[in-house]
Specification:
Metal Binding Protein, Guanine Nucleotide Exchange Factor, Chain A; five-stranded mixed beta sheet; mainly beta; lyase; S-(Hydroxymethyl)glutathione synthase
Length: 142
């Protein structure tokens, strides 16, 4: 069982699985959400995820296009959220309290990356993944 938390520790969660893979997204929304050149995240089945504390401290910001960012109200950390009402959770890997060694499956939206953001050629994808299902398959999430 893995555990994770926000910056202030108000929001905590656990995972019944250890993610094997992650991805980076370099689109402008993910850059602004993370404050760096990309987000670094994975997806897990909702059945493998559980909130341990602080769920009432979570607020959401949703763009009309559907982009969603859930965050801890006290500290502002992005926190996991339900992916488009599907049975999957979007999980920023930096929130995990346990050390794991997943592999990167790709750098998506690389054409949107800032010039200072160095993207390895072997993981570069110009656009977003073709579908949520395709991303789940690459992440090996059933």
């Amino acid at each position: 069982m893995l555990s994770g938390s926000c910056l202030c520790g108000e929001v905590t969660f656990s995972l019944a699985v250890s993610p094997k893979f992650f991805y980076r997204c370099h689109c402008s929304l993910c850059r602004k959400q993370s404050g760096i050149g990309h987000n670094l995240a994975t997806l897990v089945r909702a059945a493998d995820f559980s909130w341990q504390s602080g769920e009432e401290a979570i607020a959401s910001w949703i763009k009309p296009t559907g982009y969603r960012n859930d965050f801890c109200k006290p500290c502002g950390s992005s926190v996991p959220n339900l992916l488009r009402n599907l049975p999957y959770i979007w999980l920023p890997l930096g929130l995990l309290d346990d050390a794991i060694s997943p592999l990167c499956i790709g750098d998506y939206c690389a054409d949107d990356a800032m010039p200072w953001d160095d993207i390895p050629a072997e993981t570069r994808h110009a656009q977003a993944t073709e579908s949520v299902r395709a991303l789940l398959d690459k992440l090996e999430v059933p």
